[in-house]
Amino acid sequence: MSRPCETPGRHGGAHRVTPSWGLAVTEWLFLLLPVAAASGWWAARHGAPQRSVPGAVPDAAFLRGLSYLLDQRPDKAIDVFLRMAEVDGETVEIHLALGSLFRRRGEVERAIRIHQNLVARPGLDREQRGFALYELAQDYMRAGLFDRAESLLQELAEIEPQGRRALKALIEIYQQEKDWAHALSVAERLEQLTGRPMAVPIAQYHCELAEECIKARAQEPASAHLRAAQAVHPQCVRATMLQARIEMQRGDAQSALTLCRRVAEQGPQYIPDVLPQLLEALTHLDGVDVQAELWRLYRAQPSPALMSALTDAIVRDQGMAAALEFLSQHLREHADLAALERLLELQSAGDGRDGTHQGTVLRVVARLRARQPAYQCDQCGFVARRLHWQCPSCKSWGTIKATRPGPMDPALDSTPTPPAT
Predict the structure, then answer these.
(1) Are 48 and 25 in contact (CB under 8 A)?
(2) How many helices (H) and strands (E) does the chain have?
(3) What pLDDT score was predicted for residue 353?
(4) Buried-state track 12-30, b at ≥16 Cβ within 10 A, e below 16
(5) CA 366, CA 160: separation in Å to the nearest integer?
(6) What stretches of 38-122 adopt beta strand conformation (E)?
(7) Domain extent listing, the chain
(8) The pTM is what?
């Protein structure tokens, strides 16, 4: 499948993190639990050799390595553990756990050293090599060496049982690099391999490619991506919004308005985000009742953005008094600082003056409103000032939506109605 307007980019840069090794002994003991578990497995495989037999040497070496770690001498500990791997290949699990520990601690260079040593060992079987390659790829990703990580993961994608994890890690790399064409290809491959639907991220990758095409004024390829997005995910609000933007660029305001209305049906939480396009479409159409259109949307999902647009329309069509009455009704139902700020502004304008006390209150309200998050992730609670289609925190797609003002006391609840004309 051809993907026009692709702009894949490759880059990578080493990122070195070298935290202090001033860990308390108790912290190290806790962090070494995976290594201890692996050592227990190793001991079980080897039985309980007596000190008089040669098999006791790896036990002593392992304890010496632990001693170095507890003495905050990690490089000496690594040397001991690597020599153990040269003596007995069945200690691979110990080194995988140790390398993972170093990576979690931010000691990426030490983790890379351990995992590179394992990968270079000729005695590893296919499964062991797969685990070592995956851990090394994780080290490279942590260090920002995405090209190296990508190369290893592409090799791993053909090796079970690491193939699925490798594909997921590749998607992480491509998302971070904004290489949406490759992310799309890998996601489709992963969906076929696992049988688990990935409609949401696949649709979002098509939308990302469509946005690139729109910026390049390539409307037809953009529309093709949007059709593909809606084919895999019919409720993809973003695809509908982008198609509305294309229709406005083409000068088809009626089609753009129809698509904006569809957004309200697909996801009412996104009405504030499609509102500018909807208002633009309405200005290009004759005989359309703008206020009636806004009232319909407001009843579906009240929001500060709709409240503001509707207030403007009421002021224009019916005057200041009707707008103040609407805002008062809105505030009886919603604890909305934006509406309170707008009410104070209109009152000041109506009085023809900005009294000292009223101006102070207005500035306080504006300051408080500026601190409120405009968007929040349904998945992890991340808050933002603008819409992100992928949450920067939990990396989920389509989970960030505009926040709504909290309700007032239900006993005072009333549904605003259009002011009399």
Answers:
(1) no
(2) 20, 5
(3) 56
(4) beeeeeeeeeebeeeebee
(5) 57
(6) none
(7) 197-288
(8) 0.76
Could you tell me the two tokens for 227? 């059709």
CATH architecture of 197-288: Alpha Horseshoe (1.25)
How far is 344 from 324, CA to CA, in rounded Å? 9
The DSSP secondary-structure symbol of 420 reads P
Give the lowest-confidence range in 154-163, 252-261, 318-327: 154-163
Q: Which of 291, 365, 368, 303 minimizes the C-alpha distance to 334?
A: 303
Q: Beta strands of 269-341 (E only): which ranges?
A: 334-335
| Close Cβ partners of 196 (under 8 Å, ≥ 6 residues apart) | none
Residue with the two structure tokens 């009704």? 329
Residue type (1 letter), 74? P
In the structure encoding, which two tokens stand for residue 114, read together?
A: 């351990």
Residue pair 164/195 in contact by the 8 Å Cβ criterion: no
Strand partners, 376: 383, 401
Using left for φ > 0, alpha for ψ between -120 and 50, and beta otherwise, residue 144 falls in left
In which residue are the tokens 């069509």 written? Answer: 317
CA 150/CA 173 separation, integer angstroms: 7
Q: What is the Cα–Cα distance from 170 to 209, expressed in whole angstroms?
A: 18
Query: One-letter amino acid identity for 293?
Result: E
Which single residue is written with the structure tokens 């304890």?
A: 63
* Pairwise CA distance, residues 358 & 364, whole Å: 10
Element containing residue 383 per DSSP (H, E):
strand 383-384
Per-residue pLDDT reduced to its tens digit, 141-154: 999 999 999 999 99
Kindly report, residue by residue over 21-59, the tens digit of the pLDDT: 444 444 444 445 445 544 554 444 444 443 333 444 445
Query: What secondary structure, in 3-state letters, does 174-206 show?
Result: HHHCCCHHHHHHHHHHHHHHHCCCCHHHHHHHH
Q: What six digits make up the tokens of 155? A: 């090799």
Within its chain, how far is the Cα of 205 from the centroid?
13
Please report the sign of the dihedral spanned by the C-alpha atoms of residue 177, residue 402, residue 204, residue 210. negative
User: What 3-state class would DSSP assign to 384?
Assistant: strand
Cβ neighbours around 45 below 10 Å, total: 11
Reading the block at residue 352, the tokens are 């023809």
CA-based nearest residue to 83, from 45, 121, 49: 121
Of 188, 106, 191, the closest CA to residue 142 belongs to 106
Residue 105, phi then psi, degrees to nearest 5: -80, -5
